[in-house]
Amino acid sequence: MHVKKNKCIPKDSIIGKSFGIPDYYDAYSIDIHSKSLGTVDYLFSKFSSVSPAWMQALMKLRNFLMSFIGLKTGKLDTVSENDLKEGCRIGFFIITARNENEIVFGEDDKHLNFESSLLLRRNHENAELYSITIVKFHNFTGRAYFFFVKPFHQLIILAVLRRLANSVDES
Asked: Edge to edge, what strands does the sheet with 24-33 contain?
């Protein structure tokens, strides 16, 4: 599966409409070919269950290190399609907005505000799934933190999108 890096956030996306100007953003997409595609809720629940073992290890290391400096920690939980309501907490993320095609989740911590979304664009039996991330730094700590996190963030998104597309295409 080929993951595409997009130069801009899709205009029909709800992420960022009330966020302001981000200090960082990315948008990756992947084509999904499946007759049983499902909903964005289904894809989000699959997204939370296809993370590679190395990602789980990195999250544990991140949580261990961040607990010493007072940043929020938590684990990425596997979620049910029924848990995806606005305001619900999924691990250390909160679902901040949603519609039938997109789920926006994130966390506003003392060092930065992070939001990410899954956006599903359908076209007959095929679809394009976007993973979009926006970040606003609150201070130097946020910039320093994201400097180290950014390469891992990008690797994680690429790996999870590939795994997700493969798991959906197999169904």
From this structure: 4-6, 24-33, 126-137, 112-123, 102-108, 93-98, 89-90
Specify the pLDDT at position 33: 76
Q: Report which of 129, 135, 131, 78 is spatially closest to residue 104, judged by C-alpha positions.
A: 131
Q: Where are the domains of the chain?
A: 4-170
Token pair 């302001």 in the structure block, residue: 20
Beta bridge partners of 93: 90
Closest CA to 78 of 51, 99, 53, 52: 51
Residue of 36, 3, 7 whose CA lies nearest to 169: 36
Q: How far is Cα 9 from Cα 7, in angstroms, rounded to an integer?
A: 7
> CA 83 to CA 125: how far, in whole Å?
26
Can you list the positions of beta strands (E) in 64-110?
A: 89-90, 93-98, 102-108
Evaluate if residue 41 carries a pLDDT over 70: yes
- Which token pair is 105? 């989740």
Q: Give the residue, 56 or 130, on which the prediction is more confident.
A: 130
Mean pLDDT in residue range 25-41: 83
Which option is the CATH number for 4-170: 2.40.128, 3.40.50, 1.20.58, 3.30.530? 3.30.530
pLDDT of residue 103: 94
